[in-house]
Amino acid sequence: MDELRDRYGASLTKACALFRMSGSLYRYKSVARDSSALLLRIKDIAKTRVHYGYRRVHVLLRREGWPDNHKRVYRLYQEEGLSLRLKRPKRNKSAQLRQPKHLVTAMNQIWSMDFVADALFDGRKLRALSVV
To answer: Out of the domains of life, which is the source (predicted)?
Structure first.
């Protein structure tokens, strides 16, 4: 933009209009706040309250008077690798109660049964108990 203005002597308004952007967008300078104090506080909370996620940490920070929103807390929380582990799925209890297979030596020693369900072509349900 500056090169265009220097080379052709165009005003800022005309140069911005050529690129279809506003002058305020060209002059904008972002003001990044220092987040080191907030980051230290997030780490302290995460260290003392291990099971707290970023949402609960944000609530505690709000109660302490920090003006930062949940998106900033989430970003810092993720950057520091403080996110909680996913819970392991609980093991199926029926799988733990299974008994080991028995060695069959004669007929009619072991029986097995199962419920079977299906739908017929006209929508009626078919249920059967199969015994083997």
So the answer is: Bacteria
